[in-house]
């Protein structure tokens, strides 16, 4: 006999965990199905542990910046406190008891195992069938993509999941993929002493960002001793005698560890979405402004393709919960999705890049200001790489995108995320007072550049 509830949540990433709790708080009977860890990728394998790594590598970098600025310092990297902090503070040794108890404490029925949609309003987990009176909320997230490179599958390569469990910084590390994961982890391990090489198939690092961001990070990485090869095509991978050998472009490259960071995808087939009337061969699940994917089916998080970020998953959770509870509220809006690459310097970005704005047919005007030319950048001196770039819809006189790169680029982004979200006229932004001497004062200089 089937267990009857109001809502079945499949997958407990940040959004699914949040939604299950909120729906239970609202008095609904909720079953939440999770095959791995309650909380999903972010707390155990992604955002939190990698940002602990970043924090540690930033400390090393600042220590190395002391000479010539503040005296002498000798920096001797040691990975063990980083590994211990990730194991003990961030992940409880990859044990989700605290999160699971928190959820069941709200009255949610936690069902461990892989959920499969087996009919309208029906989910099967092992030999258990769950019937959802109101519907199913899908939050299955995404899995690392592993490219079909000859020999790779049989080797002990890392994805982010193994990288965060590292107990030592490898002597040498080859990273395939120069996007978010590749860039953040390349710098972390390089600053802990690993010889790092990035192999990127495209023609630049961080290809989703402005070309100026790619150019800046390439220069920073060169100073960090990171080797970058773009337009790299790995033909084969071998693992012998504890070392990886990669064959590419007629050469070979060896390394102690290999990190595959080539993007992520969602497995719709094994979820059985066809039983809910959805296309199982699609890249993701299409949702409307209320997160509805089909009658009685909602989806949130990476699987929706609206930005693979925890804040998007959480934002969509609130929208889906409102709709499931029959409450009114604004529909989802993605005009101002913020994103931060936590390299040093950080690269904050929101909305459209210049190229995307042009592709959208807008009359684009841009403004650019390097941080080094701003008083705070000059004061900061070593480590002051960065800039502010603004993308304006010239016809409407509002910003549609912005990039803030610099020592606190992710924080400076806040101001411009508000501007893009609220469509604040650039004339109004120009009339503001920007505190002296802050990094965000470079916004004023970029606005002046935009005016020409
Ligand atoms: C290395 C790395 C660093 C990142 N850093 C950041 C960052 O700094 N900031 C940021 O905003 N984002 C970051 N991200 C992205 C972020 O981790 C994800 O966007 C975020 O986890 C949201 O994903 P989600 O809610 O879609 O689900 P996920 O976190 O992917 O969780 C989905 C859950 O569903 C479960 N599941 C899947 N299928 C089934 C099934 N059939 N039955 C039962 N359970 C199932 C999985 O086990 C998993 O626990 C990072 C990602 C990576 C890889
Ligand atoms: N700070 C953050 O918010 C943060 C940090 C890490 C990850 N994330 C999220 O996780 C997602 C996944 O990150 P990611 O870095 O894996 O993906 P990504 O899409 O950012 O980058 C993948 C890169 O791999 C390259 N690539 C693909 N196949 C290749 C091949 N065979 N050889 C060489 N290069 C190849 C691509 O050209 C691309 O540049 C991101 O989309 C992001 O949303 C966010």
From TrEMBL:
Entry-linked InterPro entries: FAD/NAD-bd_sf (IPR036188), FAD/NAD-binding_dom (IPR023753), FAD/NAD-linked_Rdtase_dimer_sf (IPR016156), Pyr_nuc-diS_OxRdtase (IPR001100), Pyr_nucl-diS_OxRdtase_dimer (IPR004099)
Lineage top rank: taxon: Bacteria
Family under the similarity heading: Belongs to the class-I pyridine nucleotide-disulfide oxidoreductase family.
Phylogenetic placement of the source organism: Bacteria, Bacillati, Actinomycetota, Actinomycetes, Streptosporangiales
Domain Pyridine nucleotide-disulphide oxidoreductase dimerisation: 337-445
Cofactor: FAD
Parts forming coiled coils: none
Organism in which the protein naturally occurs: Actinomadura vinacea
Residues in FAD/NAD(P)-binding domain copies: 6-316
Flavoprotein is among the record's keywords: yes
Protein name: NAD(P)/FAD-dependent oxidoreductase
Keywords linked to the UniProt accession: FAD, Flavoprotein
